[in-house]
Write a structure and sequence with these properties.
This protein is α+β, with helices and mostly antiparallel strands. 19% of the residues lie in helices and 33% in strands.
Length: 153
């Protein structure tokens, strides 16, 4: 019986380390990820695609610059309410929470290094981070539909 309890504790610890990325904390930006081209009306976006748990957890952390037409698209396997924060992220960003068909559900400005969470107002499969103000400067608001392969268009 005691051996079974110890076995479960060891398995739980190993799982926690695997999910958390081990004992070492993230201290640098992740390498550039594969990209996808998206369209916001006449505006083109080159978005790095974060798909894995580690890629989505790391996101834009420690990135010091991002070109005006670039962003990061977070792709999830299922619909769910999503929440992001700006821990270790020096760039001010705007996050667009996006429905499966490419329609923007929410646009939220996020401040650098903030631990404040910013959540979608409804379940989504995608989130797109761009430089803060990118959407506003182009008159893009919730309801606007983005186009590109992830959205089936």
């Amino acid at each position: 019986m005691m051996l079974n309890v110890i076995h479960r504790l060891v398995l739980s610890l190993l799982l926690a380390l695997a999910i958390g990325g081990g004992a070492s904390a993230q201290t640098e930006a992740q390498p550039k990820l594969p990209t996808v081209d998206l369209q916001a009306g006449m505006h083109n976006i080159r978005a790095e695609v974060a798909r894995t748990a580690l890629q989505t957890q790391t996101g834009m952390m420690f990135r010091k610059e991002m070109a005006a037409h670039e962003g990061m698209l977070f792709v999830f396997d299922s619909l769910a309410a999503r929440c992001f924060w700006m821990k270790n992220t020096p760039l001010p960003l705007t996050i667009a929470y996006i429905a499966e068909d490419g329609a923007i559900v929410d646009l939220i400005d996020m401040q650098p290094y903030s631990d404040r969470t910013h959540c979608s107002s409804q379940p989504v499969r995608f989130a797109l981070e761009m430089n803060q103000g990118w959407f506003a400067k182009r008159g893009i608001k919730p309801g606007f539909k983005l186009k590109g392969p992830p959205f089936g268009s």
